[in-house]
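Repro case for the chain-ordering regression, as requested:
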Amino acid sequence: MTRIEDLETPVPVVDLDRVERNLRRMQDYCDRHGLQLRPHIKTHKIPAFAQRQVALGACGITCQKLGEAEVMADGGLDDILISYPLVGEAKALRLAALARRVRMRVAVDNSLALATVARAAAAAGREIGLLVEFDSGYRRTGVGSVDEALALGMAARDAGLRFDGLMTYPSAAASAEFVAAARPRFAAAGLTLAVVSGGGTPSAWHAHEIAGLTEYRVGTYIYHDRATVAAGVATLEECALAVHATVVSRPAADRAIIDAGSKTLSSDRVAPEAGAGYGLLLDYPDAVIERLNEEHGVIDLSGSARRPELGERVRVLPNHVCVVSNLHDRVVVTRGGVVEGCWPVAARGRST
Amino acid sequence: MTRIEDLETPVPVVDLDRVERNLRRMQDYCDRHGLQLRPHIKTHKIPAFAQRQVALGACGITCQKLGEAEVMADGGLDDILISYPLVGEAKALRLAALARRVRMRVAVDNSLALATVARAAAAAGREIGLLVEFDSGYRRTGVGSVDEALALGMAARDAGLRFDGLMTYPSAAASAEFVAAARPRFAAAGLTLAVVSGGGTPSAWHAHEIAGLTEYRVGTYIYHDRATVAAGVATLEECALAVHATVVSRPAADRAIIDAGSKTLSSDRVAPEAGAGYGLLLDYPDAVIERLNEEHGVIDLSGSARRPELGERVRVLPNHVCVVSNLHDRVVVTRGGVVEGCWPVAARGRST
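-- result from build under test --
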């Protein structure tokens, strides 16, 4: 097998030992606090990792898009939550096809998305679970009031769907208030909140403090990245994916160019207080990846006493690992520092 | 064939009529000014488009990475410039394999990259052309002085490579000064600057003002995007790729969520004066895509009198189309407003 130092760059390299520890730690945390863990596959997009998450105790998985769920169902996964509003006839038919194969649940925050799920359940002749998404203050998707949530819950029942409960992202203190206010209203309408699903890696270790949650969705925790380290939820030593790159030019004493640009690392930033530039050079933490072109990473070495040489290989911890994973058809996996294989990122680019 | 309005979203849709006009316009410009056009395939990554560029008069193509060149050679393209320093034995062997199939030229700015090309030429038993890259002030790759350029040129000759000339990116007024200073020095050393290759879409219509250029490399001009429109090099009506998306949630009167996030549109920004947000909503230019999550585009409608409805389809002009193209396995192509097919972005993700 190829040695790590012989891999062609740029290449994302995944440390399976760290992955295993990250998966176990989160599962243990959820077990300890009586939370169901429903990992989000958006970060890894690899069925084998989803299988491992379930083997360790996850109750099922979460996908954002139908295309991801299709890949995961093909990979043998069952009990899939689509935590995303699906709209339209084409989506309904694909959801129906999935529901014939595996247990499906979908979160909605509007009547059109609800109608899509109802249409799918009818077309499939199968039960599809429904969660109503509410907004805990993030101002993305999610209804803003218990009234709206309840109206959707009752509409779900009227449409013959299995109403399962509520979902939010990211969960926060406000989530508990919403759930506390919602529970008696739903109960009065004859609807049970069997599931209250929260999520988000940055605040994962505080999930148990949010009263009422039954389930937790996390994605980034499998690999971690510069953002989750900055959020204090992981250490650098827990980060399981690094992009290996090569210094292909050293045009000035204070500048190095690596063969990893925005098509390899993405242009995602972290908050200024979390660090400068487009990723952390693990071996040269004082150097700054100050600029990315598509295939060039421009490194400012002026603040770094040690400086990489032309031809040297460097490791970059991505700012945001989920989008990096999505840029690559394959990741190299290692165990004990030895290359074990090259795995397809099977659900990469499945954005529909 | 599927109607455009029935395509599942999110989806990049390419207008072939506009592509044809963009390709012709640039070729005409170069022809008029006696410049060889060597289009960069980084933007489209599709062999059929590269074939069309050559059919219209391009002298060859430009690729950034070997993986792109391999796909293009598989697609029948010949005369390929790798405008990027290649470093290491693995790259040398791949370059050698390419050189056995098609005419190759490589740009270098350092001795290690030069040695890689020399190794490839020896391994292939074929001639490989060499350009020395110089820096016109962009501070990325490229040597900073005529002395360094000349040393590399002489080293290329000594290594048995075919020295072809100079390359820079992006070309600018400073490029002409460098070339003027370099030409007599190279001539005195018995080296001819047969090729002086400039590049960059934003300043493309000024390429003829840079004395000494023989060749021009441009990529973005095939599709154009919000950045090149802001640079004044194209109009909105010339932009040939738009991402079609669906409004999947309208959680508040002033907020819409589309099913296109950073995994569809990328996180690339444009300069503040070029426009706010992560792409231009062509049908709602006063709305702002203020935030992207991986699969969510969060649109601020507060400044827009007209507002899209739940379930409505919208078109997004990307900020930077090259990275958007790289996120998608396929683009839908249309002509006269009719869907003609769905083309693989064959060189997508070929980052090594």
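Ordering looks correct now. The longest helix of chain A spans residues 16-32.
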